[in-house]
Amino acid sequence: MHQNRISQVDLAFDVFDKVAENATYVKSGVRQTALFSDRTGRKQSVYYGQRASSGGYVRAYDKNAERIQEFNRMYNRKLKRILYRYETYTKNFIGTLTSDDVLNDFSYLELDICPYGGDLSIYSDFADAVKYVLDLKKSQDKSDLPEYDRRIEFVMRADRLDNGHNSLNDEAVMTELNCIHLNNLESISDPILRSVTVAVDNGIVDPTTLPTTIAKQRRQILKHGKIAQFRHNGNLKVMAYDKFISIPQNQIDGAIKIITMSDDKRLRDDMISCYYENKVRLNNELSKFVF
Asked: Which three-class secondary structure state does DSSP give residue 81?
């Protein structure tokens, strides 16, 4: 008898605290592969690893921004459907069409709340009234969203599952969660790099305008938490401290500058606790897809 097997699981955590914007994923052999920012330079979506990778990948993104995009698409589709129905309705209407006829036959839209006072038997006036009503409803939907919601999602392939690919493997999940680091930007030991990094994080400075060395320092400190800047065979280098200490001292020219940043473990610990609190329910959900 053929048995369905799960090939991929998306393990997602919604974080309702803005500190999650400073979260990074650090794992040997895995690099940040994409970064999408809004107009202010604030991170909206970050990807680690490749989507096509057999080992899976990780993404962190602004869930509210995604929901707002979904609302916009949904209401645009709804507007088109209503206007199409109106055109069909007016073509087939027998007699002289009035605003009262439209109000009655499209009563579900509650067009009477529109303050424009136009003639609903006219297409343009009807369209304006519908747009007004739908915009009100869309605004209400947006107001119901949490103030902040950043989703951290682990896309895990089949080899991260147990029991015939129908339950989560604790060790594999812990390996992923322990790669989450919450960087404390205010703790960056170098004052210039600290100021620049905080300014970029707050959308005050565009990261694409940074000098090359500062830009590299910023990327490396966010990824590794401890970095070294030095000259190697005459060239200025910035790299993770763990990698730096493997370089022979006779290949290092001049002074060495070490920059550190503290790693707040609260987010990681909260995610681990959340996983164990919900593990039974998650595995029960997975079992529904295997038969």
From this structure: helix
